[in-house]
Specification:
Distance between the termini: 40 Å
Strand content: 15-25%
Helix content: 25-40%
Mean pLDDT: 95
Low-confidence stretches: none
Largest sheet: 8 strands, mixed
């Protein structure tokens, strides 16, 4: 008995001008979403990257003090490939992130500063769609983004942001988009920008080398498999998929 075909993806809305991507680590955006970012910056949209950590615990053979500046530099170079000029690092410790008020507060602070239409994050689900568990930092950041974006619009949550930092509430985020989610129902055509997405991942040369081989170390092959699958469901050659969380009942 054959399994039923996966339902088609709905195209993502593109009637927006500013997005902020808030993810746990350098390289998180590059494993699937960077080609979409290249499409959007080509359209003249403004996209800002915010890394909660600097990925300093991500290379087994390199001490975190050495890895931190290297991974930050690779992320800045990677972002430039897809047209992102602003990359911020929040400085939380890599590998031991915890969901809680400090992380929610920082998300709210970022959203109030940048005042985006769309917030992009990574998969916060328990798995990637099978039995392999998601990484703890991804889950913590994704959950904090879900709550921190709403906190950003409430004057009486984290009152110090307005009272001490002059960061007024921002209720302008329309949707939160989670890249790489197993519950994705939307996608965007990345056929024309797929190669730049690959190049942006390849810019993380030290990180990829530190993986010591394996599927994830082959940027082109790894990304093509997912992009083709998503493209099939969107009706294009390549696509990037996202879970969409609307922030209103309308």
């Amino acid at each position: 008995m054959t399994e039923p075909a996966a339902p088609p993806f709905t195209p993502l809305r593109e009637d927006w001008s500013t997005a902020v991507a808030i993810v746990a680590h350098p390289d998180d955006m590059e494993y699937g979403a960077a080609a979409a970012v290249a499409r959007w910056t080509d359209q003249g949209k403004n996209v800002v990257y915010v890394m909660v950590t600097s990925g300093e615990a991500g290379i087994d053979g390199m001490h975190p003090d050495e890895a931190r500046p290297l991974r930050e530099a690779e992320q800045v170079a990677s972002a430039a490939v897809v047209g992102v000029d602003v990359v911020e690092f929040l400085g939380f410790p890599d590998g031991v992130l915890e969901y809680g008020l400090p992380l929610r507060r920082e998300v709210a602070r970022v959203v109030r500063r940048h005042r985006p239409d769309i917030v992009i994050t990574g998969n916060w689900r328990e798995t990637y769609g099978g039995t392999v568990p998601n990484q703890a930092d991804h889950i913590a950041v994704g959950r904090a983004v879900l709550d921190g974006v709403r906190d950003a619009g409430n004057r009486w949550v984290f009152r110090e942001l307005a009272e001490s930092e002059s960061l007024e509430p921002w209720n302008g985020v329309r949707e939160i988009w989670a890249a790489g989610s197993p519950d994705a129902g939307h996608a965007v055509d990345t056929t024309d920008t797929f190669a730049r997405g690959v190049a942006s991942l390849e810019a993380h040369a030290a990180y990829l080398a530190g993986l010591g081989g394996g599927d994830m170390a082959d940027a082109g092959e790894w990304l093509e498999g997912f992009a083709r699958g998503a493209g099939t469901r969107l009706g294009t050659r390549f696509a990037a998929s996202f879970e969409v969380v609307p922030l209103s009942f309308g």
